[in-house]
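re: that chain from earlier
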Amino acid sequence: MESADASLASQISALTSSLNEAKNTLQSAVDQVAADLVAAKAELQAAIDANEKDIEEKLAALDEAYKAADALLVSDIAGLEGNVGELNEADEALKAAIDALDEAYKAADEAILEAVEELRAENAAQDAELERQDAELERQSAELERQDAELNTLSVVLYISLAVAVVALGVGTAGLVFGLKAKKKD
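^ sequence. v structure.
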């Protein structure tokens, strides 16, 4: 798109330069014709004053100067009209390029808005999943705390049972030792 814009800008610049050059050339030609007409008029006036024989020659020269000026003006105006036509075509192409660029920007904006909405929906779904997982972790944490409490209770019961077993073993061993000693004495 930028290369098309640059190309159009280059063409417009070239046409503008050509138009300005044609205007300058036309102005020079008009100035020269005007100077020639003034000179021819002065010569004609001098001829009228001096002699009538040169009047016809001077009128013919004046007529040629007018015809040359007219031909120059007609050709330069036709060239300027051609340049104006080219400028109008370039302007239309530039307008079409701007319209296409505007459409592309609108399409890009719509695509961005759609992508943002999709991201929002995905974010909401992920938030819901995270909340569900958080609730599950809290439930598992509560279950672990309950199991830890049961384990502590079982550990206490086990230690008490072990202590009772050690005491019972000690009492049983002592009873056995005393029983054996008593048998031995008998």
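Residues 35 and 91 are 38 Å apart (CA to CA).
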